Amino acid sequence: MPLLSRFNLPHLLPGLTLTLVLSLGALLLVKMPLPGIAMAGPLTLAMLLGILAGHLAGNRLEQLSTQGLHFSRHYLLRAGIILYGLRISFDDLQAAGLSALLIDLVVVAVTLATAAWVGIRWLKLEARTAVLIGAGSAICGAAAVLASAPTIRARQQAVPIAIATVVLFGSAAMVLYPWLFTQPWVQALFDNGDVAFGRLVGATTHEVAQVTAIAATLPEEAAHTAVVTKLMRVMLLVPVLLLLSQLFGREETPAAGTQRLPIPWFALVFMLLPLVNTLELLPDNLLMLLHQLDQLFLAMAMAALGFATRLSAIRAAGWKPMVLGALLFVLLLLGGTALTVLLG
């Protein structure tokens, strides 16, 4: 059955228009010279605007927007994740070297395992919430949280909680890393290696946008290495999603009449697009347009998510998610530094 036949197009329009307006507002707001706006990034701002709109909107608007909001949260999200693959090319991955890949692999595996162990066993968080926080810290921030949530069937209210940890500690990294780079003892630790410090930034900072902001303060070679190392981490989203779909699929009991979760097909398509990028099959103008469309789709998904989020649910989650986010941030900083010194 074709996708659009599942929806009534006139019923889609109110919700799609709402998320489009909110996401465009976020994309415009992030360009304004306001304190702290650049740190948040367009995706987080779209979610915050969505939360505000959701609390101000009446029941009538919420009912009219239901189908369009659902479409944005599910289908535009997957389209945005797929297009994200066009930001990566195999030439970039080769330039970063095997050391960057090894560091990324260890960082992702250890961060996810620690999030599950500490979050579930020690902090007594719900398993899916702990995994979402771990995915956001380990891979690529809000995009990883959004991609992981449907794969593990996480509660909708757990997503903004996980994203909040990404925003807070990713912003802390944006302040901390440029300062660390100027310290003589850090330069000595990395043997004055700009490339090594770039690997550290790319392997341990939460969001691609946050890595880009840090890279702007670094020398050219370090900046390039930071971004490419980060994009390597983004590619690890696919095996992580495949693993999570199997782990959480087994949790569903046959007695409940459920089946194992399907493989996230959008993640597999995502893996093909770096090949398109490497072979230069698309002209530069079209590629730039698709990058903008990718950001717009993800922002619309975040706005739709925010619209359905209630602050009372975030407050009810308490301090434990932030404690887990803080522990993972310290682990990324210290563990990433040790790995970079040893392998880089």
Task: Give the topology.
Blueprint lengths: L8 H21 L7 H20 L2 H6 L1 H19 L5 H33 L4 H14 L1 H11 L5 H24 L2 H6 L4 H11 L3 H8 L4 H16 L1 H15 L13 H14 L5 H24 L3 H7 L2 H24 L1
Helix pairs in contact: 1-2, 1-4, 1-15, 2-8, 2-15, 4-7, 4-14, 4-15, 5-6, 5-12, 5-17, 6-7, 6-8, 6-17, 7-8, 7-13, 8-11, 8-17, 10-12, 10-17, 11-12, 13-14
Molecular structure report:
This protein is mainly α. It has one domain. The chain has helices spanning 9-29, 37-56, 59-64, 66-84, 90-122, 127-140, 142-152, 158-181, 184-189, 194-204, 208-215, 220-235, 237-251, 265-278, 284-307, 311-317, 320-343. The longest helix is centred in the first third of the chain and has 33 residues, at 90-122. The radius of gyration is 20 Å and the shape is globular.
Q: How many independent structural domains?
A: 1
The secondary-structure element order is HHHHHHHHHHHHHHHHH
Morphology call: globular
Quaternary structure of the protein: single chain
- SS field, number of helical segments: 17
Rg value: 20 Å
Strand content: under 5%
Poorly predicted runs of 5 or more residues: 253-261
The beta-strand count equals 0
The whole-number mean of residue pLDDT values reads 86
What percentage of residues falls in helices of 4 or more residues? over 70%
Largest sheet: none
What structural category characterises the helix and strand content?
mainly alpha
Distance between the termini: 50 Å
Task: Please give a handful of descriptors for the protein shown.
transmembrane, transmembrane helix, mainly alpha, 17 helices, Conserved hypothetical integral membrane protein, globular, 344 residues, cell membrane
